[in-house]
Amino acid sequence: MAAHIQQMLQAYTPSELSVPSRKLAGVLAPLYVHEGEYRMVFTKRSDRMLHHRGQISFPGGGHESADDSLLDTALRESDEEIGLNPEHVTVLGQLDDLLTTGSNYLIRPYVGLIPYPYPFELDKRETDYLIEVPLHFLRQHNPPCQITREHEGRIVESFFFDYEGHVIWGATGKILKRFLDLLDRHNTDM
What pTM did the predictor assign? Predict the structure, then answer.
């Protein structure tokens, strides 16, 4: 199945945006297989964080000058936040860039396969805990709850996925929705 996702993402041409006024960020959507079931890893961000505090998110963060690419950013930040060694990630592909509405970021998301079990080591300054959600649950709840609103003169869609009281929304909800839609378009069974 991972090979199928990788083929799907490699055949997909993600939209890459260039908006000089935006801060750049890279995130990783980690997947693993346990007992034949794919699960996706999310973080619960610490309430001490400056941006998106307390939200459910993918590991990742802001681009730094030492990063060669936004993929390097996503992998470095995943290592810093949850102890995910970049050498243990098989990058399956890239999704569409996303502009955040409040924090002024341009986010480039990547999907990666990681081994299970994994000895995560959380940086408690950034991450309270992990949420590992079965991919079939997310697919069964796609499309999620959706709200359309106006923000700064443009229409913004927000998607909300609820898993055991953990609400995935905002930029992470949009990234997740786009990934699930890709899987659905390619009739990918998981």
Answer: 0.93
